[in-house]
Write a structure and sequence with these properties.
single chain; 546 residues; seven-stranded mixed beta sheet; 19 strands; globular
């Protein structure tokens, strides 16, 4: 009886502390944010603006814009999409969708957009270094057999999503170039754009979402862009050849930086050669072809060597700067940034589309309870939570009711599960590119070798990092643990069986180098948002009461 009394007292004490925290600290946060109230989710088809015009304008109909248009249109919003060019895009990136991204497609009911475009299923990666190879499979055992990565022609995928968005009667897809955002009393009220025929037009809506890509000309008024260009991709298409590991992406840890191979159709393999720096050798005078033949070709696996040289001879080489830009938004009433206009990471890990689709799920869930979007300042304050929630992993538990029944204290819990992947994929992309690139620093090269050997161990040593890469494990703490496990493994390789002063010095520099790689990336992403989101006031904001 004493034990039961003590147990009951302990439970009541814990509950009391929880209620004090919830009703005290959170109340102060809510009071500082303004009067808010829990809103009941309304029927998806009842979302309408008061004026009877468009509810939302979306600038850009790429992966993010088209997917967002369909998602919000399906929820009953009247959406106008303005895209500069509605013809099929021809790009050399945005061609590999990770399994985590495919799960987001399913959640958004867009999974059929990878059908009928000759998309190829991808089940993992093959990693090559100094003639050795290791095979890394996605941990898909717990998922439906249809779940895997997908690789395809980017333009075909985008066209499928545009068609699906345009099939909704409340979504208007229009070709035009948005030249500026319209502002009134500090709030964005719409856009000014030029139609395909050259006519200047204006469109108005309570909310404008800018998704105009990595070369966005509108982002400067909505964020502080700190764009870094660590390298460029040179893209080629290989034909009449087979990958050493079928249905896998291939990463060659070459000198000076990685080379990627992956299928984009049943007959074509994309090759992306990473060239460090903001410029590539000249194509016109033959310098680029010479560089690929003399420096890169000897490092290509034998199975692909002939097709690689043939692709160079055909001359259809494309280049693309690899941009990295942490999200640094200026919360602006009436406007929101998404996609590459908002946040970019090195495309080595193929995580861009997964992040964009994950962000769309977060934004959809935030907007669903709202009937009216016309109160721009209140909506802006509420949507500030988007910038935190897109980086949060875990569950929010709230007590929805508390009462006595037959002398027992009863409480009902409401649990909201959060699985966004933005911070984890952004951090992994930046860190992995630096680790996979060759360096004159011996400590960095030891880290590179340690990473290859660590992944080659198999088991949790490969499935753990690959689950992060694939978007299946969005937890940033897991990423940090594996990253420093690689560094410690590298130090162990140096010190065993008998350490020397030189090896000990290199080991210390290896740990220092690992810290110098990952900590600045985490700082740019936001330490509080990644690891302590509960300390960010926007995390607790409820939908406006109206």
């Amino acid at each position: 009886m004493v034990d039961l009394t003590l147990l009951g007292s302990l439970l009541l004490a814990i509950l009391g502390v929880f209620l004090f925290f919830r009703n005290g600290f959170l109340k102060k946060i809510e009071e500082s944010d303004g009067d808010t109230a829990a809103a009941t989710v309304v029927d998806q088809r009842e979302c309408r603006s008061r004026e009877g015009g468009d509810d939302i304008i979306i600038v850009g109909a790429g992966v993010a814009g088209a997917a967002l248009a369909y998602t919000l249109g399906k929820d009953g919003r009247r959406v106008r999409v303005i895209e500069r060019d509605l013809t099929e895009p021809d790009r050399i990136v945005g061609e590999l969708l990770q399994p985590g991204g495919y799960l987001k497609l399913i959640e958004l009911e867009l999974q059929d957009c990878v059908d009928e475009i000759d998309a190829q299923r991808v089940f993992g990666y093959a990693l090559f270094k100094d003639g050795k190879a290791t095979w890394l499979s996605y941990p898909l055992e717990k998922f439906h057999s249809d779940v895997s990565g997908r690789s395809f022609h980017n333009g075909r995928f985008i066209q499928r999503m545009r068609e699906k968005a345009a099939s909704l009667p409340n979504v208007t897809l229009e070709q035009g170039t948005v030249t500026s955002l319209l502002e009134e009393k500090g709030a964005i009220t719409g856009v000014q754009y030029r139609t395909k025929s050259g006519e200047e037009m204006k469109a108005y809506a309570p909310l404008t979402v800018v998704c105009d890509g990595c070369f966005s000309n509108l982002r400067r008024s909505l964020c502080t862009p700190k764009v870094d260009v660590p390298s460029c991709f040179v893209g080629l298409v290989l034909e009449k050849c087979d990958l050493p590991f079928a249905n896998h992406g291939h990463v060659i840890l070459a000198d000076p930086s990685p080379i990627l191979f992956y299928p984009i159709s049943s007959t074509e393999i994309r090759c992306l050669v990473d060239v460090p720096g903001e410029k590539v050798p000249s194509i016109s005078n033959g310098d680029l072809a010479k560089y690929l033949k003399t420096v890169i070709a000897p490092q290509v696996p034998p199975e692909l060597h002939g097709a690689f040289l043939s692709a160079i001879v055909r001359g259809n080489m494309r280049t693309m700067p690899n941009r990295s830009m942490p999200a640094a938004p200026h919360p602006t009433p009436g406007a929101l940034l998404m996609g590459d206009a908002f946040n970019m990471r090195h495309p080595l890990t193929g995580g861009g589309m997964t992040v964009a689709l994950s962000d769309i799920v977060v934004l959809r869930n935030l907007l669903r309870p709202l009937r009216d979007l016309n109160d721009a300042p209140t909506l802006c304050k509420y949507l500030e939570s988007f910038y935190t929630l897109r980086k949060v992993v875990g569950s929010i538990i709230t007590i929805s009711s508390l009462y006595l029944h037959d002398s027992f204290l009863i409480w009902n819990l409401s649990v909201s599960h959060l699985q966004p992947v933005a911070s984890t994929i952004n951090t992994l992309a930046g860190a992995l590119y630096k680790v996979f690139s060759a360096s004159p620093d011996q400590a960095r090269n030891e880290m590179r070798q340690a990473c290859f050997d660590y992944l080659s161990l198999g088991g949790v040593f490969s499935s753990g990092p690959v689950s992060l890469l694939s978007g299946l494990n969005p937890r940033p703490l897991s990423l940090v643990c594996h990253f420093f496990a690689v560094a410690i493994y590298g130090v162990g390789r140096l010190l065993l069986p008998f350490p020397s002063p030189k090896q000990m010095w290199i080991g210390a520099r290896l740990i220092s180098s690992a810290s110098a790689i990952i900590f600045p990336i985490i700082k740019a992403e936001g330490v509080r948002q990644m690891f302590f989101p509960a300390t960010v006031p926007a995390y607790y904001r409820a939908p406006p009461a109206k």
